[in-house]
Automatic annotation (TrEMBL):
This is Stimulated by retinoic acid gene 6 protein-like isoform X1. It holds the Pfam family RBP_receptor. It comes from Erinaceus europaeus. It is a multi-pass membrane protein. It is found in: Cell membrane. InterPro entries: STRA6-like. The chain crosses the membrane at residues 31-50, 62-82, 115-138, 145-167, 182-199, 269-289, 330-353, 394-415, 435-459, 487-514.
Length: 629
């Protein structure tokens, strides 16, 4: 029997059950998830039949009987897709409720031992992926007329079942009215968008089929923003700098030569919706715990009234009630700051992705730890599969940890500043606050005094008046040694406070930045133990190697040239279109282009290999003379 974690209780209580215990509904969303695999398999089978295989099998292979049908269909190109980004993103958003169900480990169709729970969750992830596979496959299919009909029908089924589930049981026991709608409206909006998208695809493909519109070109190998980036690199003069607005200079500046891939857009949209659901579920759990604490307070009061206590026990009970009240208030107040912190992290991660990937395009790896300059290829391939899921999990757990930390800070603030004033202890508070500030000021003053003495008496004068600081050369050595000796014993005590401050700062920053997968919270030399940061780096390298605009532009030139040569060879009477002038051999043309390249780039002469029996010195001198002329 698998033990239920608190998160699994969340899912079982809010995502799978009917919110209203007295509500009777014949729509079971978990059961519908299982039955949705039937139309999903049918749609996958139809699209696979239409998909042509590029390589034909031999006659000895049994799959030869299938011809060139039943090719492999892909839901989404996770590396190089820049079109339909928001359609894919909202298709991911439609899976948010099921992703939260898996995240809470509520998927347990089989009773298995604890060690086998990972396999059950793997099966659950595959089932959720198969049930939502038609959304992505229909968006990316080449046969848009049929795929739009299939995608619209499948989206309509999910939309109708979800609406029916909300109508049957709209209310709940914790949030009250419209609790089910609060949980399911983001997925409904995503399904509505998909319905409109598939309807638009159907109308557009139908107009093309009827001949009213021209057939759209196939997906370009070189995207428009990649071509703009390469053109910007080839400009001799830098572009004119326009005056930036306040938003562009301080928050974010759009770059027309850059686009986020569909994977990043989908991850961000799904993370937003999952974060919203997580906050709602957390608030529901808070209401449940608050009710239990209210019952506990009533029991304490009843116990005191029954025992007729008026001494120490009464004061303890009052302190416990005050602690419960302060904790509940701090938890509610910090919901908004914790939410805004994680939302800002999502936007900041997108900005860091653009900054890091553009640095890699420029060949700059200094922002990476040394051990990540040449990551493993296999680890990078696995990292791009892990990144999206891990990013969502890091955001959700990061919100919970940040919320707990902010609540603790709120409780400390209440007990240190607010409650003493409420209890008419303001003068004592000011006295303790003044003594604490004075103590810290004296300690900091002594530390600054040490630096000032070292600068004034134990360093030699500047070698030049323009130097920013004195050179690291000792002066007054005897006084310096006495200075170190007498401060040795004091610095032992001072080091204790420095050590505790180091621990406190590390805990606060580590908890605050736990959701930031784009930066490691471990010290230098231990970054390899941060699996989330390793997934981020591996994902960056895969995108760098497969979507680098310069590399893609070079491959585009090669493919275009090869395609033009093949078309030219396919024409039977191609020579009729040639000029009547003298013909130039391909070898002579290549040599002429080589000579022109070497004249424009004299440094390449040092890299050329000289053939045996040929003197490259005379040829080099001729090229240098041509370049100077």
């Amino acid at each position: 029997m698998v033990s239920e974690t608190p998160t699994s209780f969340l899912a079982l209580s809010f995502l799978t059950r009917h919110p209203n215990g007295t509500c009777s509904s014949f729509v079971d969303m978990e059961l519908f998830l299982h039955f949705s695999l039937i139309p999903s398999f049918l749609i996958i089978l139809v699209l696979s039949f239409l998909q042509r295989r590029e390589r034909h099998r031999q006659r000895e292979d049994t799959s030869y009987l299938l011809g060139n049908h039943f090719g492999i269909i892909i839901p989404l190109d996770f590396v190089g897709t820049f079109s339909n980004r928001w359609s894919y993103g909202l298709a991911f958003g439609a899976t948010a409720n099921k992703v939260m169900f898996l995240f809470s480990e509520g998927y347990q169709p089989l009773q298995v031992p604890q060690w086998a729970q990972a396999f059950v969750l793997l099966i659950g992830g595959i089932e959720v992926g198969l049930s939502h596979f038609p959304f992505f496959a229909c968006l990316s299919s080449e046969f848009q007329l049929l795929s739009s009909i299939l995608g619209f029908s499948y989206s309509l089924i999910w939309f109708a079942v979800t609406i029916l589930h909300i109508i049957q049981c709209p209310h709940g026991q914790l949030l009250g009215r419209y609790e089910t709608l609060v949980l399911y409206w983001p997925s409904l909006m995503c399904l509505v968008f998909l319905l409109g998208r598939f309807l638009h695809m159907f109308v557009k493909s139908l107009r093309v089929r009827l001949g009213w519109d021209l057939q759209t070109e196939e997906k370009p190998f070189l995207e428009a923003h990649q071509a703009k980036h390469v053109k910007q690199l080839l400009r001799k003069a830098p572009p004119l700098q326009r005056e930036k607005s306040w938003f562009q200079s301080r928050i974010y500046e759009w770059d027309p030569c850059f686009q986020f891939p569909s994977r990043m857009i989908g991850t961000t949209v799904l993370a937003f919706i999952c974060l919203y659901l997580f906050i709602v579920i957390e608030f529901c759990m808070f209401l449940h715990v608050r009710d239990q604490l209210d019952v506990f307070e009533d029991q304490l009061e009843s116990y005191i009234a029954f025992r007729n206590e008026t001494g120490t026990l009464t004061s303890v009970v009052l302190q416990v009630k005050e602690l419960i009240s302060v904790t509940k208030g701090a938890w509610v107040v910090t919901i908004l700051p914790a939410s805004l912190t994680c939302v800002s992290y999502l936007f900041h991660i997108l900005a860091c992705y653009r900054k890091h990937i553009k640095r890699l395009w420029a060949g700059d790896k200094h922002f990476l730890p040394l051990k990540f300059h040449n990551p493993s290829s296999s680890a990078s391939v696995v990292a791009i599969a892990r990144y999206s899921g891990w990013q969502i999990a890091y955001i959700l757990w990061g919100y919970l940890i940040v919320h707990v930390m902010q609540s603790l800070c709120g409780v400390v603030l209440m007990y240190s500043l607010v409650l003493p004033i409420v209890h008419n202890q303001g003068l004592e508070l000011l006295q303790r606050l003044g003594i604490g500030v004075l103590t810290i000021a004296i300690v900091l003053g002594l530390m600054i005094l040490q630096v000032w003495i070292a600068t004034s008496f134990f360093l030699q004068q500047k070698m030049d008046a323009g130097d920013r600081q004195k050179p690291l050369a000792l002066n007054n050595r005897k006084a310096f040694h006495n200075f170190n000796y007498f401060l040795f014993f004091y610095n032992v005590l001072l080091g204790l406070g420095a050590c505790l401050s180091r621990l406190l700062i590390s805990c606060v920053l580590g908890s605050w930045l736990i959701a930031r997968i784009d930066r490691t919270i471990l010290q230098n030399g231990y970054e390899g133990a941060d699996m989330g940061f390793g997934a981020w780096i591996g994902m960056l390298y895969v995108d760098h190697y497969h979507t680098n605009p310069v590399l893609v532009s070079f491959c585009h030139i090669l493919i275009t040239g090869h395609r033009e040569r093949r078309q030219q060879q396919a024409v039977t009477y191609w020579y009729l279109n040639q000029s009547t002038g003298p013909r130039i051999s391909a070898r002579s043309r290549t040599r002429w282009l080589l000579l022109q390249t070497l004249i424009n780039n004299p440094k390449l002469l040092m890299c050329r290999k000289s053939k045996p029996g040929h003197s490259s010195r005379d040829f080099t001198q001729i090229l240098l003379a041509c370049s100077e002329s």
